[in-house]
Design goal:
By secondary structure, the protein is of the alpha/beta class. The protein has 15 helices and 15 strands. Helix 5 packs across helix 6, helix 9 packs across helix 11 and helix 9 packs across helix 12. The N and C termini lie far apart (61 Å). The model has no long low-confidence stretch (mean pLDDT 96). This is Nucleotide sugar dehydrogenase. Belongs to the UDP-glucose/GDP-mannose dehydrogenase family.
């Protein structure tokens, strides 16, 4: 099969490599010439994706994957086009369609009869049918459902383990027509492998949800569930703090019963997905009060962590506070909606002098993000652990001299590491 993948980012490039590894001829399209050059050299343009370096080098050297900036080179010969262009959003997660509109326009201008176009970017319900398909018809002069087919199939993978997730999770698809759904099912069955899952009610594989809208909704629903669940855990945590209870003990006990699946509390919910997709759901369903309240509750957690630190330290005015972790989660070099931003802002507003450490970022990268870099061994008054990097499991008072209070926002450290100074964990009593 001849396949084009539009946007060779942290999701798109592993997908292109996966398709090529199944023996198909893949052309990746990206607007960034340096990304294209890197891919054509068989070198991953970003670090941290398990197995990507080796798999990319193999398929490029075998001639099964190449990259270009030119849609006219990639789209006309493709039997299937997979679009994984980022959907940018503002702080309220209102969509900025600029990049996706541009990509859809370029695909439509080069579309040929018989092509399957599959959107994998997470979208508000109805977007594939009402925004993208009409645009493709208008630009190509073709009719969807007859001359070409459009489907929605959400990516469900996590950076750092994409190839494993592609095998583990069912591939959800929804077409705009029965014929389109059949084409999408056949396509994904030809490019993916699936692990056996005895825990599922039906075999792991490609699952047709019956419509593009249902597939769009499924992605929003599974991510919104996580945000709401984390918000519940965070509210339990704040009650536990006031009540002299360890919420982690409560959660472990509750989850020993098979119908309870309470998530973990923490300083922030970050990343491209969990803070964003509930807002996209609210775009469709503004009456979803539970979703809105949960999002607001999670957004307050960085401020709550700073409350705990201010109480433990006895005041923040002039205090040099180390925020450990710029990334939104451990082991991933990504700051999208990271808790570091509201945490640093809150510390600054209360008169503290925040500095930031992250083992994945250089001083120059931290400065570009607007932070003052911190180096282990320098004096500091207090610490906030924002990201659960593995390196932070062994850091303590010896590495941050002068520390007088610690707030562990991820429950990754221990009281013993900090030499007897006040050590607060979100969700536990003093």
């Amino acid at each position: 099969m001849r396949i084009s993948v539009v946007a060779l980012g942290k999701i798109g490039l592993p997908l292109a490599v996966q398709y090529a590894s199944k023996g198909h001829d893949v052309v990746g399209v990206d607007v960034n010439p340096s990304v294209v050059a890197s891919v054509n050299a068989g070198t991953a343009p970003f670090p941290g994706e398990t197995g990507l370096d080796e798999k990319l080098a193999e398929v490029v050297s075998a001639g099964r994957l190449r990259a270009t900036t030119d849609y006219a080179e990639a789209i006309p010969e493709a039997e299937a086009v997979v679009i994984v262009v980022p959907l940018f959003v503002d702080e309220e997660a209102r969509p900025d369609w600029t990049w996706m509109d541009a990509a859809t326009t370029s695909v439509g201008e080069n579309l040929r009869p018989g092509t399957l176009v599959s959107y994998e970017t997470t979208l508000p319900v109805g977007t594939t049918r009402t925004r993208w398909a009409p645009r493709l018809e208008e630009l190509s002069g073709l009719t969807e459902g007859t001359d070409f087919h459009v489907a929605f199939s959400p990516e469900r993978v996590l950076s750092g383990r994409i190839f494993a997730d592609l095998r583990r999770y069912p591939k959800l698809i929804g077409g705009l027509s029965e014929a389109g759904a059949a084409r999408a099912t056949a396509f994904y069955e030809a490019v993916l492998d699936f692990d056996e899952r005895t825990d599922l009610e039906r075999p792991n594989g490609v699952w047709d949800l019956g419509s593009a809208e249902a597939a769009e909704f499924a992605k929003l629903a599974e991510t919104t569930y996580r945000d709401v669940n984390i918000a519940l855990a965070n509210q339990f945590a704040r009650f536990a703090e006031r009540s002299g209870i360890d919420v982690y003990q409560v959660i472990e006990a509750s989850n020993s019963q098979p119908y309870s699946h309470i998530h973990r509390p923490g300083i922030a919910v970050g990343g491209h997905c969990i803070p964003v997709y509930p807002r996209l759901y609210l775009w469709n369903d503004p009456e979803a009060t539970v979703v809105r309240t949960a999002r607001e509750a999670n957004a307050l957690m960085p401020s709550h962590a700073v409350d705990l630190l201010e109480e433990a330290l006895g005041g923040l005015q002039g205090a040099r506070v180390v925020v450990l972790g710029a990334a939104y989660r451990g082991g991933v070099k990504e700051t999208a909606f990271s808790g570091v931003f509201p945490t640093v802002s809150e510390l600054t507003d209360r008169g503290a002098v925040p500095v930031v450490h992250d083992p994945l970022y250089t001083d120059e990268e931290l400065e570009k993000l607007g932070f003052t870099p911190y180096h282990l061994g320098e004096q500091a008054d207090a610490v906030v652990i924002q990201a659960d990097h593995a390196e932070y499991r062994t850091i303590g008072a010896a590495e941050i001299p002068g520390v007088r209070a610690v707030v562990d926002g991820r429950r990754i450290s221990s009281e013993d590491a900090w030499g007897g100074v006040p050590y607060r964990v979100i969700g536990t009593a003093v």
